[in-house]
Amino acid sequence: MRILHVSDCYLPRLGGIEVQVADLVRAQREAGHTVEVVTATPGEQLPGVHRVVANLPFDLPVHPRGTAHLLRIMRSGRFDVVHVHTGAVSPFAWMGVRAAVRSGLPVVATVHSMWDPVTRGVYRALQAAFEWRRWGLVLTAVSEAAARPIRAVAGPRVPVQVVSNGLDVTAWRPEPGSVRHSSERHSSVRDAGDGPVDDVVHVVAVGRLAPRKQPLRLLKLLETVRTRVPKDIAMRATIVGDGPARGRMERYLRARRMGWVSLPGRYSREQIKDLLAVADVFVAPAPRESFGLAALEARAAGVPVVARAQSGVADFVRPGKEGLLGRTFDDLVASVARLARDSALRQSIAEHNRETEPVRCSWPAVLEGFAHCYELARS
């Protein structure tokens, strides 16, 4: 099959959508498909990647004449299907949808984000102006939580399928002997101001340090958890990532004297894998997380996950099985504190995660899901 992916953002940018689309392209090529990409992101030339780039401030991933460029590429490529990747509102991606419709090509559009009330209002207005529900689209969402608001806007005439983000599950499985108990890993660590230490619990979070991810609320969560865990259980936390909120987070940690929390910056995948091998709890506190790829990586590595019940993480984390879920800030605090206090619960969840693969998120399952969507669009 000849597949054309259209995405505002792509490599060399590194973000959730960019990495996921690049991994999907790789997996489809390895499965024998002919795959090309059109993006508005500037960068080096890559095989099969068309860059439609305008000289705009801040390298904004959009092009004022994007539809014309996309039409030319689509009409010359003899593609079987166009697969568009969009965030909340992605102008270039929707130019791709419109160009595919005008070219008479089947279209699948994957929404990688949550549609909040403002976004839903935007798409209702676009329906009134352009009647996009009549274009013959097949929409996909990355989780049931993300699919619900899309279905509310799309209505019964537009199929909305759920196809998980993909992960090479076996690559994240810890190597034999690489996972050790907290007390073995950190027996020499002392929590600031505490007395003798019987155990050390390592809490990890990974993600972009952007306001919408609520990173300062994560620090408040950790601070509150520390007050609910006995002093003979030391804690440390590592928050991996970078972004505009980093400066405020550093000031918060200094003001609160939270020296047990570190912000090491961005990590490579290998560094994250090594970190997860020595983690006890993974926290994904954002309430509007459409999927939670970092949480899936932690779950695949065997780490108990604490996340919001209303987020996409709930698709692969069941309470008491792969981790703990909560609907409120206080619920998350209670869940992290419970895992910090209960080493037996941590161990049982970790063993379950290491022994049970998240099959729905494996690449064979994801490729099968998109193949179904492509056939649905073509029919």
**Total strands:** 13
**Residue share in β-strands:** 15-25%
- What overall form do the CA principal axes indicate? elongated
Terminal residue distance: 15 Å
Q: Could you tell me the mean pLDDT?
A: 92
Percentage of residues in helical conformation: 40-55%
Q: Calculate Rg over CA atoms.
A: 22 Å
Instruction: Specify the CATH architecture of the largest domain.
Output: 3-Layer(aba) Sandwich
Count of distinct structural domains: 2
Q: And the CATH topology of the largest domain?
A: Rossmann fold
Q: What composes the largest sheet? A: 7 strands, parallel
InterPro entries: Glyco_trans_1, Glyco_trans_4-like_N, Glycosyltransferase_grp1
Organism: Microbispora catharanthi
Pfam families: Glyco_transf_4, Glycos_transf_1
Domain Glycosyltransferase subfamily 4-like N-terminal: 15-169
Description of the structure:
The protein has 379 residues and is α/β, with parallel strands linked by helices. The chain folds into 2 domains: 2-166 and 362-378, Rossmann fold; 169-358, Glycogen Phosphorylase B (Rossmann fold, 3-Layer(aba) Sandwich). 41% of the residues lie in helices and 17% in strands. The protein contains 14 helices and 13 strands. β9 (233-240), α9 and β10 form a beta-alpha-beta unit.
Question: Which short descriptors sum up this protein?
Answer:
379 residues, alpha/beta, elongated, 2 domains, seven-stranded parallel sheet, Rossmann fold
